[in-house]
Amino acid sequence: MAKILIANRLTDGLVVFYAVDGNWVESIATGQMTFDDAAADRLLAAGLADEHSNRVIDPRLIDVTKTAGKLIPAVLREAIRAHGPTIAVDRTL
Amino acid sequence: MYRYDEFDQTLINERAEQFRRQSARRLDGDINEDQFKPLRLMNGLYLQLHAYMLRVNVPYGCLSAHQLRRLAHIARRYDKGFGHFTTRQNIQFNWISLTDTPDIMTELAEVDMNTIQSSGNCVRNITADHYAGRARDEIEDPRVWCELLRQYSVLHPEFSYLPRKFKLALTGSPHDRAAVAVHDIGLRLHHDNQGRPGFEVIVGGGQGRTPVIGKTIRQWIEPRHVISYVEAILRVYNLYGRRDNIFKARIKILVNAIGIDKFRKLVDTEWEQIRDTGLQVSNTEFERINAHFLPPDYENLADQGDELAAKRTREPAFDAWMRSNVTGHKVPGYAIVNISLKAPGRIPGDISADKMEHVAALADQFSFGELRVNHRQNLTFVDVRQIDLYLLWEQLVALELATANIGLASDIIACPGLDYCALANARSIPIAQDISLHFANSGKLQQVGNLTINISGCMNACGHHHVGNIGILGVNKRGKEYFQLTLGGSADEHASLGIRLGRGLPRAEVPGAIERIVDTYLTIRQATETFLQTYRRIGIEPFREAVYGPVNVSRRVA
Ligand code: SF4
Prior knowledge:
The structure holds 2 protein chains of 2 kinds. By secondary structure, chain A is α+β, with helices and mostly antiparallel strands. Chain A has helices at residues 37-52, 76-83, and strands at residues 2-9, 15-18, 24-25, 33-34, 56-67, 70-73. In chain A, 26% of the residues lie in helices and 34% in strands. By secondary structure, chain B is α+β, with helices and mostly antiparallel strands. Chain B has helices at 6-27, 33-41, 65-78, 101-109, 143-153, 226-240, 251-258, 260-274, 283-290, 306-314, 316-325, 353-366, 389-398, 429-442, 445-448, 510-524, 531-538, 541-548, 551-557; strands spanning 45-47, 52-56, 62-64, 82-85, 91-96, 127-128, 168-171, 185-191, 197-203, 215-221, 326-328, 334-339, 350-352, 370-374, 378-385, 413-414, 453-456, 470-477, 480-487, 499-500. Chain B starts with 5 loop residues before the first helix and ends with a helix. Residues 554-558 of chain B have low confidence and may be disordered.
């Protein structure tokens, strides 16, 4: 299954994804996907290096699938991390 | 309510500055996450699924309008414009940035608030009856003791690294609204046989993966000895509580392992050595703290009999609200008013910054500028003149804060669950929304009467599912969310733990299952029995059958 590297950004804790240019981005759509083990290992190594240099916390590879053009993490927990709470973030409560 | 003195203020300011330096070192890379995590947790800053979450203490649920306005400001300026009230009477902000946290702490300190010990293995925010000082059935106001215990336990060097977190709850009334039996220590004020007020001390209660109803370690203790007695318990726990296994580290496991009698002996031996030391609360100290809790300037008013009755007859919605949300006050002419944060389909305990400000204004106008957070995630005005009730209700209606459901089936406790919480197995909030909408549409709310439904997204039980009349626990089975129902839990003076009904249900089946449970109750209840009374009379089987079918069928699918 395709994998993507997810973490929380140190400064604000927001969920971020590792992008092709080595930056961390907030949208999973612009995260770098890998399809083989060797590439996944390289991605994780890059993530751990960024954890070491205090850019992100807890980088980890997650499985993703593409459904209707949208990247969806396979595990619900990660899907909620990637796409936000499943309830309205309602400011009028 | 309690106002910080110069010692409190200095301590809180210093703590905010200390955290400013600690977080700067983290952001500069001088310390790594493993080193920083314990420091941020000591200040209530968690890293959740989407962002940092900051938990702010609301000591024993007491909040001023001024403080609520500051919370609104924090929600707006540093978060997404809302906050979430929790079952520990605290407020959590879900979208906090580490870089902003020191400023938030400084802003909190300016209004006598802090986040100290709102997480970590220490004495957590002390909770209490949200009607404290006002309830008709109350023996004595427990808040003075709450505050003394707060001052005693905050940054206590000996108890900063307990085996696990430690929660205290106090009630001054025979009717327990503070769930004292499911706390590490529960303190219940009552009279001894000579009519002297004192505390019953209950120890080793708790929820989580091993739910336990606490045991009485001491039937009655003079209030002035309560701190030394709590210290004796903490010492024994600190010494003998397990540190090798996080799941066996709470005091309830220790008490169960060695037995309450042996535990009591250890505590008494410890207590003998400290009871007559400076831990004894002197009259002067009591009076100093008590001065913060003197009653407000009540007017000399009579209870509103006929006028209120006439309004209630004219306006059924007002009548429904009066019945469920308003309760008697110890002073004639006044009432206690609960503000439900559980409108159908809404997120239990959530409130927007705008509404916080409106509520603060109403507290100023109608309730001496103070309010309470209660552990069922609602707000309470404790000093409303009965002649103002109708006007207050109208204003709450305009704010969509007048849902008449306190204590009813849609007044659901729900923890943040998998929508926010890093420890969750399943979502809680959407389940609460499904159920509350279901009841709103069925129109059965009033007919069903008192019924507590509590939902947790994992075994940690922050949503108090073990003590809900109907408890719902989210579990993860092979990557899918399922919900296990328990029946018969109760958090009051007759506390009991729920019994598991059967196999977990997928989300879509939960409201239907609740409906069948409730319909079964409506069919078999006698006279004015509540759901819990019916359950206690007849047991779980009829409900099990209603949800899973006759026994042989349920066995097959189990
Ligand atoms: S019960 Fe579990 S899911 Fe819910 S808030 Fe507590 S730890 Fe999180």
